[in-house]
Amino acid sequence: MSVTIKSAREIELMREAGRVLAIVHDELGKAIKPGMTTYAIDKLGEEIIRSYGCIPSFLNYEGYPASICVSVNDEVVHGIPSKKRYIKEGDIVSLDAGVIYKGYHSDAARTHAVGEISDEAKKLIEVTKQSFYEGIKFAKEGCYLHQISAAIGDYAESFGYGVVEDLVGHGIGHNLHEDPQIPNFRCRGKGIKLQAGMTLAIEPMINIGTYEVDFLDDGWTCVTGDGSLSAHYENTILITKGEPEILSILK
After folding, report:
1. Phi/psi of residue 120, each to 5°?
2. Are 202 and 150 in contact (CB under 8 A)?
3. At what angle do helices 8-31 and 38-51 cross, to 10 degrees?
4. 65 domain-assigned
5. Which uninterrupted H or E stretch holds 123?
6. 1 within some domain
7. Which secondary-structure segment (H or E) carries 131?
8. Segment 95-152, tens digit of pLDDT
9. CB atoms < 10 A from the CB of 174, how many?
10. Which of 42, 85, 114, 127 is a good FRET partner for 190, with 20 to 30 A between their CA atoms?
11. Residue 159: inside a domain
């Protein structure tokens, strides 16, 4: 495993990528409404990314055909936008997006309510987001990677939720996916020791029901094994000697 330590210059580029990505998510969150197609969400996201002189990380990445992953209700991640797919009142929509700025990536995801949603859906979204924050309490120099994993998984599971195991977080930088892999559940062993200058994409994917998932015939869309709702929350973070710096939220 080769985990890169970023230089001051690389960190500055990733900060800018993260800043733009935070704006993208903020704008898309405001735009989502019943009757909108998932294709329209993707096109708006790509337009915003390019308006800041950046490139969508996901477009054509390993053949993925869009800039924004749009996953609805029981879709966990990697939903493919479609002109025929309309979102409706009561849906929850997970948006996963990445931005490249001068060769460096940022990656982040949010789950949004479409209009009024059920209390159980609201709770899932809140717990998924908080599980990220529980995890990054251990995202600092001198801690171990799997302390992050255990904190995320233990928190989500305390609500009876299923923590997806087939998909995990990852290192990020010049490449979208770098070492190390970052599970969202308790693991054997401590994992690597964290060092200042590491950049990580931490991304809990949490299901109301089973942790098990299936993949649709399109080769991309991941859905819950039991049809239950799923939520996704992700940020790109920088490990420092103190508290982690979250690169992909609006300051």
Report:
1. -70, -35
2. no
3. 140
4. yes
5. helix 119-135
6. no
7. helix 119-135
8. 999 999 999 999 999 999 999 999 999 999 999 999 999 999 999 999 999 999 999 9
9. 15
10. 127
11. yes
